[in-house]
Amino acid sequence: MASHEEAVKNTVDALIRENTVIIFSRTTCPFCGSTKELLDRYNIPYRAIELDLVENGQDVLAYLLELTGQHTVPNIFINGKHIGGFSELEAGFRDGTVQKLLAEAKAEAKAEAAAR
Predict the structure, then answer these.
(1) Is 98 domain-assigned?
(2) Which residue among 24, 54, 73, 98 has its CA within the 20 to 30 Å range from the CA of 90?
(3) Which 3-state string (H, E, C) describes the chain?
């Protein structure tokens, strides 16, 4: 049987892998709100995991720190790639990194669908 830490790691890794855009967030965090508003403005669907509302939120945050070196939220991943927080997301929109990652995810999804 997997330990609690292994279960958290497996869950987080699966969330990152299975969601084109995922935000590990807190409901009380203003930068998390700004992140969601920015994605909403561009009609980019995302999944948000509110770490202050889930039972193992502190454990998820601890694993994210181990995985990314980032101890703050929002902690954003696009197409499996760690983006960082809100400032990095904004910069990624400005330099085209976000758009490129989203286009790659769309192309991968199309290829997977065609292979079925």
Answers:
(1) yes
(2) 54
(3) CCCHHHHHHHHHHHHHHHCCEEEEECCCCHHHHHHHHHHHHCCCCCEEEECCCCCCHHHHHHHHHHHHCCCCCCEEEECCEEEECHHHHHHHHHHCHHHHHHHHHHHHHHHHHHHC
